[in-house]
Amino acid sequence: MRTSTLANDSEHSASLARGDVRGSGTLSWVLVIERSGLLVLRYGLVFLLLLFGALKFTATEAEGIRPLVENSPLMSWMYSAFSVRTASALLGVFELSVGLAIATRRFLPRASGLASLAAAGMFVITLSFLFTTPGVLAPTSETGGFLLKDLILLGAALLTGAEALLAGARNQPATREFAATLG
Asked: Is the distance from CB of 55 to CB of 15 less than 8 angstroms?
């Protein structure tokens, strides 16, 4: 039978927020799960950005993204400035660079956080393809489902970006007090 009261739950929450999990095996496991989830999100995001970035250098992928890019008011300009293959390669360079920068979280948390925010911006743009590409939301379209995965990737980028930026702020003497007020 559970005998914990709301006051005790609040006390445990405050203790957890301070990072004090001594004497509480459950809370320490929750922290392990949280940290594991964040690692999977961050490095899963890195893996997918590197994979999709590398694929942008292939003719198949360049042609595959063509209808999305040419119907986008935000990106269609690329085809008047570059060939389809060059535009795709430039997008690939961006994705590879962002993926590698996110991977630097341990050594350069601020750079990793900013890269995650850049990825979030990219996912917002790719989600806009759902509204700008004719037929993409048709029940028979595989592209719509493929683009919807970017909702999850957007969440991953925002969460990993916030975590990395907070970690970077905690490491800076001028912002340590501010970061402490954030938890």
From this structure: no
| Residue 49 φ/ψ, nearest 5 degrees | -65, -40
Distance in angstroms (rounded) separating the CA atoms of residues 172 and 166: 10
Distance CA 158, CA 122 (A): 12
User: How many Å apart are CA 176 and CA 113, to the nearest integer?
Assistant: 17
Could you count the other beta carbons within 10 Å of the beta carbon of residue 174? 7
Q: Please give the model's pTM, rounded to 2 decimal places.
A: 0.79
The radius of gyration of the chain's CA atoms, rounded to the nearest angstrom, is: 21
Give the list of residues 6+ apart from residue 15 with CB closer than 8 angstroms, or none.
21, 24, 27
pLDDT in tens, 15-45: 555 655 555 677 788 888 999 999 999 999 9
Q: Among 124, 118, 149, 147, which Cα is nearest to 135's?
A: 147
